[in-house]
């Protein structure tokens, strides 16, 4: 056998290995092939190829493993049980940039499924290797490492803390300053994942100087980058007044308000979420948003959005209004109540209707003027309907009832109360009748309308326990009218009159 023939055997073997891993990597991209590959024992066949002498075979084997692990948690579990992770971590430090990218992809694909799988990735020493990759020259390696770190951090505070302890945050902040857009996006996303769990983790990101660099990118033309930037700033702002103030001090207003009209739906939603997270903390922060023209911008945003994208805008109006009567008046003046009423009529999802109800309650609860502004938008019958509907979720019923109570306790605009007098159950009715008992003693015109509209008759028909608050309110109302009028509208009075007619003996 000649030397050439001997070498040909090796060449043939190498060619077969290469063809095998390339075909598996290709087959792994299609979900319908996954189960067949798994049943054929693909994991145990790919594992030794990670240590192959040919770099192309190693990289393609890692890529195939990553695609398989990415598909479901069973396959990710198989990667963990097959002791593949330590091999990948070792290779991260030793191999070329192509292999590093593929290895980081496998770690990310395993970590994404659950906290337990992410913990397995941490336990095999991956964090230190991934953090070293963040210092690589090649932006693709940095991106793959940042992506994997973000997927580990997103699960819970403990995993996020492990990422911080490995020294990833300062390097991620450096990565968002790199020129490559995709690296900026992934790094901003990873910082957002670290921030979201606790004030302490968010503070770590702030201490690394992230806010200033994130704030510089809010007007970047790339929509995917802006999504991540606003997400990260929201996750920082949500935790505390101090963190919110730091974000505001980066002079993001009024520039962020222009992004509420961004063509990208997710950018708009993340901006509205950021404004909500800032508005909720203190009257001063809410006032700052109002002064920048934020309320009108949010009202327009709610009008132009649909479904879940609307939600942060709806809640922002509620949070601003909750702080004080002046701030609630700013929402009313910007036509916020009308827009919320339209949203309540248009939306079908219970959780969005519940948020609208809550916001209307926050606007109407301050003074009679605020309550009137909400009542004239004709939302009280709708809130009552949502409270009484058997199909409404428990949360929607609770929030509708609370909003009704908040508004009714301040409302002296009797025309808006009248429909509720006829439809409301006893626990809501007591608030309606209570408001009538406050207004009628002082307003003769209102007393006349109360009689002619059938209100007095309805009140006489209400059954209540003697000594209850409702009973006292009804007595107060009855005391506003002559006794014979009250008797006239009492149930059974017409029958009593007819009986008297029958019994009456005319004088001859």
Structural notes for this entry:
This protein is mainly alpha-helical and 508 residues long. Helices cover 75% and strands 0% of the residues. The chain is built from 35 helices and no strands. The chain has helices at residues 3-27, 31-39, 42-46, 55-71, 73-81, 84-94, 97-111, 115-123, 126-133, 139-153, 157-165, 168-175, 181-195, 199-207, 210-215, 223-237, 241-249, 255-258, 265-279, 283-291, 294-304, 311-323, 325-333, 336-346, 350-364, 368-375, 380-388, 394-408, 414-423, 426-439, 444-452, 455-461, 469-478, 483-489, 493-503. Helix 13 (181-195) runs parallel beside helix 16 (223-237) and helix 21 runs parallel beside helix 24. The mean pLDDT is 88.
Helices and strands in order:
Elements: H1 3-27, H2 31-39, H3 42-46, H4 55-71, H5 73-81, H6 84-94, H7 97-111, H8 115-123, H9 126-133, H10 139-153, H11 157-165, H12 168-175, H13 181-195, H14 199-207, H15 210-215, H16 223-237, H17 241-249, H18 255-258, H19 265-279, H20 283-291, H21 294-304, H22 311-323, H23 325-333, H24 336-346, H25 350-364, H26 368-375, H27 380-388, H28 394-408, H29 414-423, H30 426-439, H31 444-452, H32 455-461, H33 469-478, H34 483-489, H35 493-503
Summarize the structure.
By secondary structure, the protein is mainly alpha-helical. It has helices spanning 3-27, 31-39, 42-46, 55-71, 73-81, 84-94, 97-111, 115-123, 126-133, 139-153, 157-165, 168-175, 181-195, 199-207, 210-215, 223-237, 241-249, 255-258, 265-279, 283-291, 294-304, 311-323, 325-333, 336-346, 350-364, 368-375, 380-388, 394-408, 414-423, 426-439, 444-452, 455-461, 469-478, 483-489, 493-503.
């Amino acid at each position: 056998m000649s030397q050439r023939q001997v070498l040909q055997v090796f060449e043939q073997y190498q060619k077969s290995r290469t063809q095998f891993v390339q075909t598996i990597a290709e087959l792994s991209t299609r979900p319908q092939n996954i189960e067949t590959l798994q049943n054929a024992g693909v994991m145990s066949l790919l594992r030794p190829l990670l240590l192959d002498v040919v770099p192309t075979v190693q990289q393609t084997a890692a890529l195939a493993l990553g695609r398989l692990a990415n598909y479901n948690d069973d396959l990710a579990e198989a990667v963990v049980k097959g002791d593949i992770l330590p091999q990948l971590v070792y290779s991260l430090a030793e191999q070329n940039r192509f292999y590093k990218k593929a290895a980081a992809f496998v770690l990310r694909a395993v970590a994404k499924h659950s906290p337990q799988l992410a913990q397995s990735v941490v336990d095999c020493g991956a964090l230190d290797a991934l953090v070293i990759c963040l210092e690589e020259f090649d932006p693709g390696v940095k991106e793959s490492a940042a992506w994997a770190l973000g997927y580990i951090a997103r699960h819970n505070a403990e995993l996020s803390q492990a990422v911080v302890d490995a020294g990833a945050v300062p390097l991620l902040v450096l990565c968002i300053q790199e020129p490559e857009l995709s690296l900026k996006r992934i790094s901003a996303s990873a910082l957002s994942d670290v921030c979201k769990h606790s004030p302490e983790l968010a503070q770590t990101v702030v201490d690394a100087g992230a806010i200033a660099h994130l704030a510089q990118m809010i007007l970047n033309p790339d929509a995917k980058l802006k999504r991540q930037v606003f997400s990260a700033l929201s996750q920082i702002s949500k935790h505390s007044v101090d963190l919110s103030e730091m974000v505001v001090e980066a002079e993001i207003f009024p520039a962020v308000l222009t992004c509420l009209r961004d063509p990208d739906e997710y950018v708009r939603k993340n901006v509205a979420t950021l404004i909500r997270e800032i508005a909720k903390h203190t009257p001063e922060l809410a006032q700052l948003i109002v002064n920048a023209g934020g309320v009108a911008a949010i009202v327009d945003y709610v009008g132009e959005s649909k479904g879940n994208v609307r939600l942060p805008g709806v809640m922002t109006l509620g949070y601003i209004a909750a702080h004080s009567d002046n701030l609630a008046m700013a929402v009313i003046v910007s036509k916020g109540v009308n827009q919320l009423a339209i949203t309540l009529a248009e939306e079908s999802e219970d959780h969005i209707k519940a948020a609208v109800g809550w916001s209307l309650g926050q606007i109407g609860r301050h003074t009679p003027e605020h309550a009137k502004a909400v009542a004239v938008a004709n939302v009280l019958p709708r809130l009552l309907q949502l409270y009484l509907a058997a199909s409404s979720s428990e949360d929607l019923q609770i929030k509708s009832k609370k909003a009704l109570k908040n508004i009714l306790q301040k409302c002296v605009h009797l025309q808006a109360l009248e429909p509720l007098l006829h439809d409301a159950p006893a626990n809501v009715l007591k608030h309606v009748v209570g408001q009538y008992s406050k207004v009628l003693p002082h307003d003769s015109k209102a007393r006349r309308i109360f009689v002619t509209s059938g209100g007095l008759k309805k009140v006489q028909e209400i059954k209540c326990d003697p000594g209850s608050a409702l009973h006292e309110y009804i007595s107060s109302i009855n005391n506003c009218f002559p006794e014979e009028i009250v008797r006239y509208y009492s149930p059974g009075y017409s029958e009593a009159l007819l009986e008297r007619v029958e019994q009456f003996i005319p004088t001859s």
